[in-house]
């Protein structure tokens, strides 16, 4: 079996020596200065946009004919269910038969060459520069994944998801959704479009932080402040802590609902401190209750949070002491978080320190951070922490973006609530809207563990949720523009391979007077997928991104395997891409352009 070397002992191949880094940075800086000066002296090219996305020239003018032929071959292979189903086995057989050197050559000529930008942060620069010259910007992701067995994945997940003080799942008020279940401990189950991190120890989390920072440095050097790096919080800490924090958040909502009635996030109740004092009238003299009320986060419009989240993300608060609420009848303080040891408190502070380090570096390098969405049992904690990072760092522009999965029933309400928090606390709100990656797993887990299915009932309902959420964000952007405020207070990435959704966004932008130059809406697709959407958008002056994976060939095999699986699930899109590829190959053949050299004069918005 192909496996990564021990993550503690083996250095990631993209982390070169200081001397090599310095030399490469000088080279990139020189190239950056050259490209910038060139762009300043030349009026950027803009093409009209065919919103039917049926123009093969616009789709593939950034590709050589060889790259088109390779893409067609890759999509042909992805159309074979049997090959895709056993793709990882076939890759390993090919490696054993061909040997490492020939296998790497084969992969670079096929799947790896199509879906991956290069092996390290230096070899990907030509790809980034070519994308830029055709109006497309990068979201960088170091895509090395561990190829571990299901047994090993389950072992790691169970061990890292339970406190050393024991699992309090049977405690009064415990919510089963936010406790590990061995049947679903391998979080890769029925997930083909998202990477999974399994916790090993704190050293691997430190290593992941270093990798994310190297990604930031790489994207900064090649994109002049327009690039993005994607991160996952499960890469930076023990999953138990995210589970416990998520359970706290949901128990806090239930506590507030029981206290004041209604439903939803604490913020949505629009209650004041005086309202709370009335609920605690019979125990108002209790010092613990008075201290609790003193720590409640509120403004003139009401209560935002029952707990001082700013202290939690500033690395110094004790979780076990923070998450306590008063019983309205006795005044006795009840703990909402299950037992957590001093060592685990330290692990949580380490996780927050790592995230702070990454975001602070991003702000210094003028690169944006997109925090990926994960399973619903982690997501309340991920969103809460990400919003606090927005509050801390998004003071002058959107540096931190949160991801919202529109296949979930609560997405619209969650986005509206988070938009309200951003408005009331006066920070820039950044959101990436996706359909989502964990639908089958979420549905199966909810049924097995006996909690409400969090997933929309149909594909059409998910599309409606996506469009409804996007329309609300656009409406609020228009309100900001009409009031003379900075429209960039809200920034949205439409991360979708669905051309109907892209069209919906473009049509709504036009109808309410939002232009690409406002820089509030951008679009994103994966490298090697839906070029017929991304490149025409970028060449027409829209803010367009490609999600750029990179890493050594043999260590990105799990990523490539997932790309093959994902393509199998979107055969209609593949059919269109194949048709457009074949059309452009024939056009070049008949016009004697087989040796066409891509040369763009576009400047990303």
UniProtKB/TrEMBL annotation:
Pfam family for this entry, one: Pro_dh
Gene Ontology biological-process annotations: L-proline catabolic process to L-glutamate
Keyword Thylakoid listed: no
Stretches for region Disordered: 26-46, 148-173
Cited function: Converts proline to delta-1-pyrroline-5-carboxylate.
Catalysis: reaction(s): L-proline + a quinone = (S)-1-pyrroline-5-carboxylate + a quinol + H(+)
Gene Ontology MF: a single term: proline dehydrogenase activity
Proline dehydrogenase domain boundaries: 127-574
Name recorded for this polypeptide: Proline dehydrogenase
